[in-house]
Design a protein that fits this description.
Radius of gyration: 15 Å
CATH superfamily: Gcn5-related N-acetyltransferase (GNAT)
CATH class: Alpha Beta
Largest sheet: 5 strands, mixed
Helix content: 25-40%
CATH topology: Aminopeptidase
Structural class: alpha+beta
CATH architecture: 3-Layer(aba) Sandwich
Shape: globular
Amino acid sequence: MKIEKANKKNLREIAEIFRIESGKEPYFQIWTEKKALMKIKQFFNKDDIYVALLEGKIIGFIIAYSYRSVDNKKKGFIEEMWFDEKHQGKGYGSALMKYVETKYKKNGVEIIQLAAKRKANAFKFYDKKGYKESEDLIFLEKKLK
């Protein structure tokens, strides 16, 4: 597997993986090809996107960014990470995570944050990678009636 920074030519492939995989349980996100591409383009214009390539084909990607927090710590945030279903569970996601963690650490990032659904396989994956529930942040939601 090879990892590289995404370029504009990669956006359609990235959007297609995002559209298909985010539509599955437990996410059930419905994206048209056009809207998925627009969403990925928005990320591309402001965040870091890295792709995992196998035999020249994109099999997965990660979208992340770094920022300076109010306590002046340099932090990173993983916005999205998706892999084509047939390439999940083979260590490619671990390699991509390690790549971003190493790159961000070299750039002074002290903490990387992300959000994951508790019932998703991703939650177990991130837990195995050492990501734990934050002591100072919690995700809250309210259903509007």
